[in-house]
Amino acid sequence: MQVIKKMLTDNGVPAGAILYVAMEHLFLKLAGLDRIIETWKELDPKAYAQRFIFIDEIQCAKDWETWVKRTVDFSKENRIVFTGSALPITNTSTESGVGRWHTCAMHTLSFYEYMKIRKSDEVAIPPIQSLSELFTLSQAELSRIGAVSESLKGHFYEYLLRGGVPQTALVSDIAWAQQLMREDIIDKIVKRDMTAFFGVRHVIDLESIFLFICMHYGTLIDMKTLCENLEIKRPTAQSYIEILEAAHLVTRLKPFGYGKDILRGKSKLYLNDASIAPAVLLKGKNILSDQQALGQCVETTLCKHLTKHMGAKKFLVSYWRSGKNHEVDFIASDGNRSIPFEVQYREQHTEKKDFLGLAEFFKEKNPDHGYIITKNSSDIGLTPWSKCIKIPAHLFCWWIGQNEISQFEIWDCLLYPLTGQQYYAVYVHLPIESLSNNPHSFRWRDSLRVGRKAHFNVPPWADTAFSSAYSGQN
After folding, report:
1. By the 8 A CB rule, do 229 and 257 touch?
2. E strand or H helix at 295, and its extent?
3. What is the share, in percent, of the chain residues with pLDDT greater than 70?
4. Same domain, yes or no, for 267 and 119?
5. Which side of the chain, N or C, has fewer Cβ within a 10 Å radius?
6. Residues spanned by the domain of 40
7. Which range (128-132, 261-265, 419-423) has the least confidence?
8. pTM (2 decimals)?
9. Does 262 share its domain with 391?
10. CB 438 within 8 A of CB 444
């Protein structure tokens, strides 16, 4: 909606040339896309050089892929932006969309974004361009930053309970926020969307698997144990886990390595938001007093931040386990280098004996450096026994989110075809603060980097939007 507003107010696009459709409405589903477009043109028959069509929940439309392909090929004046659930769009589509549309993944709020839309008090933490910059700081500087970050800790705990969905993040009461999360996850996604769009026939089995993951997330999943406990056949269980993963409820981490290391190894399953398990299992604030459960929530949040942040940099996130069954929680690798991340979220300050897995990884893989995620703000600094630096979890997540914003990773590049192989780009930037006024506008943003402007034939109004935002005016 913010994109449409900017087109109307700043770029002079006529209101009649813009159409917004929420396809989840029953009458619109029955009418179909062709009839909707015909009615729009009947109401405003004026000939526009370009018409802009925004369609939300496009998976609710029948044969939407064919419609988009036909419209792109034969109605050159139309420019289309559509959103919808990930699995129907990317997995069940009969049309590949190659050369016709560009798919962008959307993520829940990072801790930094959460703080921004909550309009929390500013914290004087210096920004960094890369985590590797921390190795150049003195212990005194790191200790000072750690002390300043202590004020973030309470907000971080609330973030774990409220979650990264703008609607729940803005709710003042945590119990109400978790109820909204339960309704969205269980009632809407698992029960409604899975049956309506994904063809799930045994919803009870799917719910059982999802609850099993909520109780055992962040651990190695033994499919044999899962199937025996839930009395579900292995192919069915694997299929349902893939659906949960494609629906962005679950993230699967494979073991670090190549070939048989991956094929033979077990995967770890994480929930895509730390607030899901406390909300679904009705734990509420009690999770903060359960050190094991709190550690699982923090590890899940770190998994989300790492897969989002490192994924944008073309890194693959996995886990590593040695022959002695010593483990490193996360490994980010781009094929040329590997960066280990170990989570030690506990009251006591970390010592060398706590990192047997990390020590073995350094000995075997010899990475340039690594990171240890701690609990206390004072547990920060370089370790004397390896090329690692300790960072409190709340500060780590703050820096990751802040770095994404400063590097324009919340910019989106939507490609629209003109003629032949010529494309132009519409650059979309949504200020985080504006989400507090319209949390539903979150559906229009994502966390992908924009390509170089010179690569595209950019129309004047899009070029103006890009230039003003790039210079920091928006």
Report:
1. no
2. helix 291-312
3. 80
4. yes
5. C
6. 2-103+409-470
7. 419-423
8. 0.75
9. yes
10. no
